[in-house]
Amino acid sequence: EIHTNEKEVTEKEVTLHLLPGEQVLCEASTVLKYVQEDSSQHGVYGRLVCTDFKIAFLGDDESALDNDETQFKNKVIGENDITLHCVDQIYGVFDEKKKTLFGQLKKYPEKLIIHCKDLRVFQFCLRYTKEEEVKRIVSGIIHHTQAPKLLKRLFLFSYATAAENNTVTDPKNHTVMFDSLKDWCWELERTKGNMKYKAVSVNEGYEVCERLPAYFVIPTPLPEENVQRFQGHGIPIWCWSCHNGSALLKMSALPKEQDDGILQIQKSFLDRIYKTIHRPPYEIVKTEDLSSNFLSLQEIQTAYSKFKQLFLIDNSTEFWDTDIKWFSLLESSSWLDIIRRCLKKAIEITECMEAQNMNVLLLEENASDLCCLISSLVQLMMDPHCRTRIGFQSLIQKEWVMGGHCFLDRCNHLRQNDKEEVPVFLLFLDCVWQLVHQHPPAFEFTETYLTVLSDSLYIPIFSTFFFNSPHQKDTNMHQRQLSLPLTQSKSSPKRGFFREETDHLIKNLLGKRISKLINSSDELQDNFREFYDSWHSKPTDYHGLLLPHIEGPEIKVWAQRYLRWIPEAQILGGGRVATMSKLLEMMEEVQSLQEKIDERHHSQQAPQAEAPCLLRNSARLSSLFPFALLQRHSSKPVLPTSGWKALGDEDDLAKQEDEFVDLGDV
Amino acid sequence: MEHIRTTKVEQVKLLDRFSTSNKSLTGTLYLTATHLLFIDSHQKETWILHHHIASVEKLALTTSGCPLVIQCKNFRIVHFIVPRERDCHDIYNSLLQLSKQAKYEDLYAFSYNPKQNDSERLQGWQLIDLAEEYKRMGVPNSHWELSDANREYKICETYPRELYVPWTTSKPIIVGSSKFRSKGRFPVLSYYHKDKKAAICRCSQPLSGFSARCMEDEHLLQAISKANPVNRYMYVVDTRPKLNAMANRAAGKGYENEDNYSSIRFQFVGIENIHVMRSSLQKLLEVNSTKGLSVNDFYSGLESSGWLRHIKAVMDAAIFLAKAIMVENASVLVHCSDGWDRTSQVCSLGSLLLDSYYRTIKGFMVLIEKDWISFGHKFSERCGHLDGDPKEVSPVFTQFLECVWHLTEQFPQAFEFNEAFLLQIHEHIHSCQFGNFLGNCQKEREELKLREKTYSLWPFLLEDQKKYLNPLYSSKSHRFIVLEPNTVSFSFKFWRNMYHQFDRTLHPRQSVFNIIMNMNEQNKQLEKDIKDLESKIKQRKNKQTDDILTKELLHSVHPESPTFKTSLCFKEQTLLPVNDSLRTIEGSSPADNRYSEYAEEFSKSEPAVVSLEYGVARMTC
Predict the structure, then answer these.
(1) Whole-prediction pTM
(2) Start and end of every Myotubularin phosphatase domain (chain A) (predicted)?
(3) Which of B72, B156, B203, B336 is labelled catalytic?
(4) Which residue of chain B comes nearest to A666, CA vs CA?
(5) φ, ψ dihedrals at B547, nearest 5°
(6) Are residues B93 and B132 in the same domain?
(7) Which of A8, A215, A548, B227 is least buried, going by the fewest C-beta atoms within 10 A?
């Protein structure tokens, strides 16, 4: 997390800062870390260390970095630290050729390139390092970042053991954890959902189902035994209630069966359930099946893996090469389109609840991926409480952590199955960023908060994002002694989204075609259009319903997260930071004047506390602040345009002589 | 007027271009001598100046009537449906005539009367004084002097009378050089950087062909580099793509041969010609006129139009200039073909990066007056003021405004003016309401007697300058703070408020800036209230009534510094009547009281949209 640094005493000699419980595994000296600078590559010598928590580079000349700009920095992860879970891909360079590194190596590379999940790129030259050390560090890094891991090997556990006393929660932190009946009752009361819904403890001790949290909320007339019938499948679970009484519900689908008899039983079971929630006092229910006719997880995975390549840039030559095709590359990744579709779906559901007073039931195989995404987006748009920091954290706790989103698998923390790695949560944060970007005054937090939150997905000292379900977390966190038998690392045998190959292929093809049609025509239902247009034509109430713009140009790239490490993208003394710092400056002035007035009013001499001027000298701040420090800027007048000519799609016009030529019908 | 047959048509429908549900407004269409006016059933008025009309099109008859599509130069597109074909035809014909005038004297500026007397009008014209501006830059000085060679427009018709040249330059040198330059546009000073003692100069392409030389021209270039005491070499920047420049050699024109000129460094920067720019903008507008843009159509269309790439090229050239002067202390000579399109873009943008004066409202006017109007950018031809050659029309100045807009986006604190200012200027280069942009060069303007017969735009903008102030502007900064814009593709975006300024459905309702501007307005109202209250208090005091109460009141209202007023505004705003019903969720937790207060402060009590359009309509009345 980013804190203001109270002038931390920096030791002059370069030492490795270890967290409690952190152990050094291997290291190598005289490693050259390349610094991207124009196209001429030079670097810094230092030590490359691999611990059970991170890979760290310790430059021999660290003092150069200790300037005033470092007052904002991540306290856990230094500029040259990469947590093991943050490593995305490792490449080796052999005779100028770049190859992906994995498994046992026969030959060791002269250069190591590490692509991180937070989109940093590190290049280490090993040419001057002793062969022995190269072998040790390279195979060490590959093993500890790429090889499948056991859950109990997560650094989380050694950290928790060593730093036990630090786990005291800050009393000011009121994030609702939803791990008790009380929390759910409080949420029911807050949203006035307690008339029709009840919190149940039928799953206490995870006796019914390991996928569901110990406590959750269901419609009041529903007998609790029903929950046990299909281990929680087919049960409408309450997410949130709107002020008009309509509610957002979710349901995980019943297991697919071949046997007609069982199917019959399932059908009558569902009929009973639907009967209950279709009857007054319940509103009309609209079912949204997120498994079909909407995004597939594979689409998200493919889009993101294309999208991130735009930012994983090895050198500035590569940068300028891709920059020419930036817009079309951006588009062909379709990441922005996926964001747009998520936002659109959430607006559709909002319209049902807000304008048509309907209940919406989200249906998904396990109700733990797109369900989490859509239901949290809907709440964020409809419930201003979710736009406070505490409210937002509680929302994540409720919908994602307790909702059983498989963070462990989706982030591939254990490197057990690359296919399961899908950035659903990141997609959610990106959708939230669009909202924050479009309506900054409606949120208590800023984009920097979201960026730091996205980084913490890969920092294994917080347990929040390192389990597949609350059950898995509880069993592991409480019984973390090694003597205990190993708990199943995958608690619930999930039906992955890759079922039989053909099945998914067909589904995907169909899904694609349908979504294309839906998208291109853009003829949405009249209700939706009207709702959307009428909201946008009124002045915004930041404390009420909040809808994003979803027209093409409105969906933007989350520059702070994706572009922050690319020096070419920075604007010295400009960007949004400049606006922010000016506003902060003005607010500080207002505040200090206010204090003076109060002082005069009470006619007493209160000690004059100078408001800390955090962003002084804003003119020289870089637009990449607070993530990248001031970068060099090239001094020679150069034209980066030369590449443009290569495109030359206007040849016929350009070849014409200038201003005098008659060009026919141009 | 002879062109108008029908002045009023009722039951006309106005379609919303971007609405997918084909919404429309019904109202009455009026045709006046200067405007087309549509008043809908809510009494909302849409004014369209005839000069703003770029094209009128009559589409095939439909069941509901005859569709009439009007495209404007300010990127407004209106789609009317006129019930009777006969009316539609009349209006169509009238608009065709009215929108394309043959003579300057028929343009709106010659009939526009803002009720000012002659001396007020003359004062308006004297607001921008270029001699004063050169003095501000620091010329004439020991290196640069005012030349009277072009006093009678004898050397170059498209240049202004007053030109600054290196002080050693004799008249024969000037005459010789001008004969060697296309349209006689020889190298002269455009901007002088006092600190660096380096200059930006401008000219047109040399008539060098494959081998021709001109001693006088070589001498003049040497004089320019010598006028810089710090650095003896100078850059010659040809803003054209190399290919175009080479093609020109076959026609006896071309570019400077580095071997013939001592101490020059030659550089092409590759900005495309006016025809490429025109068709690129056309493509951009086509891409963006599709209904309900999806993410996908948008970015590929944006890229294939090439528009942002052209903007980037202009920006890169300006950065080149700024760096040459700041980093290398070298003077720069800029030209293209005739030196009135790309050269104006690059010189003015380069100066803007270098000198913060041009980033103020007044300074920006001076910059336009200097590098565009006085140096003969052909406004009338490029904007198609008269019914002329459509091949001469090109959005060169629009591009310049867009470059400036990108800079304001990248450096929100650096400019005194806001986006509305740029939009308003763009509005008036086409409106023909003021004399500033009429004609193609100063000589022509003098012949038209514009100063006697028309008004200048600048005093009207200055009078209204509150509308154009950027609330985030930091005026404290040093004069020579250089802007270093970023030109990676990510930094360039579609300027929606320009190209879609009349499409409400796509318009962002408000920005932080609007919020701040509105707060400023409210502050003023509150200040007035305070004054009223104070005077009431005084009256009461005189009546010797309750003394204590007065003191109390005086304490809580204390108008001192503007920032303090802001905080006051925050407090009082919650007391203001809130007109719309708050869409607050009733059941929201009492635990976030703090947050609800915060949200209330920000919500409401601001006009729905800052009506730029309305402002324009009023100004053009």
Answers:
(1) 0.82
(2) 178-562
(3) B336
(4) B279
(5) -80, -35
(6) no
(7) A8
